[in-house]
Amino acid sequence: MITALLTAALIILALAILGCTYRLIAGPSRSDRIAALDTIGINLLAMIAVFCMLLDTRALIEIVLVIGILTFIGTTVLARYIERGSVIEDGDDH
User: Fold this and answer.
1) Residue 92 lies inside a defined structural domain of this protein
2) 27-66 burial string, b = 16+ CB within 10 Å, else e?
3) What is the DSSP letter of 70?
4) How many domains are there within the chain?
5) What domain range is 28 assigned to?
6) Within a domain: residue 93?
7) Of 30, 53, 75, 94, which residue has the fewest beta carbons closer than 10 angstroms?
């Protein structure tokens, strides 16, 4: 019973990633693409966690942490790029 529910959760999360991939490609704006990319990262975290429960292991928990950190940094960098037009400041203080 629990295996069927976890498998259904994996399928639903895969469909959510597929929908976010469409939004990532189609746009229409940069902020929509950033939100889709962030959502893909979060859904990927959830899929790995559900997969860990399905396999009854803790071996992939470190991967969840690394992907979470990379998703956060990527979203922050892209939001900064939208706001300022550059990621790294050039040193000119105006």
Assistant:
1) no
2) eeeeeebbbbbbbbbbbbbbbbbbbbeeeeeeeeeeebee
3) H
4) 1
5) 2-84
6) no
7) 94
Query: Which burial class, exposed, middle or buried, applies to 20 when counting CB atoms under 10 A from its CB (0-12, 13-18, 19+)?
Result: buried
Whole-prediction pTM: 0.78
> Are residues 34 and 79 in contact, defined by beta-carbon separation less than 8 angstroms?
yes
> What pLDDT does residue 52 have?
92
Q: How far apart are CA 28 and CA 34, in angstroms?
A: 11
Residue 94 maps to a domain: no
Cα 5 to the center of its chain, rounded Å? 22
Q: Both tokens of residue 43?
A: 């859904």
- What is the predicted pLDDT for the residue at 85? 74
- The tens place of each residue's pLDDT in the chain, 94 residues long, gives 999 999 999 999 999 999 999 999 998 888 888 889 899 999 999 999 999 999 998 888 888 999 889 889 988 888 888 877 776 776 665 5
- Amino acid (1-letter code) at residue 75: T
